[in-house]
Specification:
Length: 153
């Protein structure tokens, strides 16, 4: 394991985000496997929330499918690994409300919780399965407001 991966694993254990992820994996009755780069993979996540193919809590990557299927998508696995690093950078659990704020901002501005979320952008939008919107992210209401403002002139 590389030094950076080892440091991330230690930090996410000390900041309690990985223990939370392991507890969530146990509560969700997932099958836990060791993955590369000091990450754990929790297979067969069954809850409908969050509505994503994969997500991470500390150094635990949750997937609805198998570890093998996740590892066959190195872009997505790398994306989730970058989120694990973001947990370490945010000192653990503060990542959750910060991520939620980023998702709310992105949803309000683009209609998508990931396109303008700084955490998703830093982790790699396309690797995370976020397809860029043609012409850039925009919100229909914003366009209507602009049209309405022109009409009032």
């Amino acid at each position: 394991m590389r030094l950076g991966s080892r440091a991330r694993a230690v930090l996410n254990t000390l900041n309690l985000s990985t223990p939370l992820g392991l507890a969530l994996a146990a509560a969700g009755r997932t099958r836990l496997r060791r993955g590369p780069e000091g990450l754990f993979i929790a297979e067969r996540w069954r809850s409908r929330l969050p509505p994503a193919a994969a997500f991470v809590v500390g150094n635990v990557v949750f997937t609805r499918g198998s570890a093998r299927a996740l590892l066959a998508r190195p872009g997505l696995f790398g994306h989730e690994g970058r989120h694990a690093t973001q947990y370490a950078a945010c000192l653990g659990l503060p990542f959750l409300p910060l991520y939620a704020a980023g998702a709310a901002y992105s949803l309000a501005r683009s209609g998508n919780p990931g396109l303008l979320n700084p955490f998703e952008r830093l982790a790699g939008l396309e690797a995370g399965g976020y397809a860029p919107v043609a012409g850039g992210p925009s919100r229909p209401r914003t366009r209507r407001r602009a049209q309405g403002a022109r009409g009032r002139g």
